[in-house]
Amino acid sequence: MELYWDIYKLEDGAYVDQILGHKQVKPDEVLENVEIVFDSVGGETAKQALKVLSKESMFVSIKDREALGFDKQLEQKAILFIIDMDMEQLTRIGNLVDEGKLRPVMDSVYDFEDVRAAFRKRETGHAQGKIVLSGHKA
Predict the structure, then answer these.
(1) Which parts of the chain span the membrane according to its record (predicted)?
(2) Share of the chain above pLDDT 90, in %
(3) Is there a contact between 15 and 9 (Cβ–Cβ < 8 Å)?
C-alpha cells in the first residue's frame, strides 16, 4: 500500500497533509474524520471518500454529479462542487499558473516519439503528478 505523506502549502496558508493514490488505497480503510476531500477520480473512490468525512466537512469534486451517483442523504453530509470547465475558467487557471499562484505537478515529460515509455510509466501507478507528452514545435 502506498500513501503520499508530503505536506503541500496552499496559497491561502492552508495545508494538504495527505494525498492518497486511488489505485493503492481505499480511503475508507485508512482515514477518518477528514475535513476536506478533493476528488479528481469519482466513481467508487469518491463513494469511499464520503464515508470518512466529519460532520463539518467539505467534499470538492471535479467529476460530474451523475458519475458520482450521489443521493440526497450524502449531499447533506458533504458540500459538493462540480466544476464545468469553460474558456473563461481555463484562462483564469492559466493566469494563476503564469503568476506562480498555482503549480501543476508533473512527474515526467516525454518526447512524442517516446509515447510507449510514457504509457509504461503511467501503467506502473507510481507517477506523482502528470505525465506529459511533448510534441514538435511548428
Answers:
(1) none
(2) 0
(3) yes
SS3 28: helix
Q: What per-residue confidence (pLDDT) applies to 65?
A: 59
Strand partners, 39: 61
Reported as half-sphere exposure (CB side, CA atoms, 13 A), residue 6 has a value of 10
Helix or strand holding residue 126 (H, E): none
Residue 53 bridge partners (DSSP)? 34
The whole-model pTM stands at 0.43
Higher pLDDT, 128 or 10: 128
Of residues 87, 76, 47, 51, the one with CA closest to residue 63: 47
Are 55 and 35 in contact by the 8 Å Cβ rule? The answer is: no
CB 24 within 8 A of CB 1: yes
Instruction: Please state the rounded mean pLDDT for residues 108-131.
Output: 85
- The cell for 114 is 517516446
C-alpha cell at 88: 473563461
Q: Cell numbers 511533448 label which residue?
A: 134
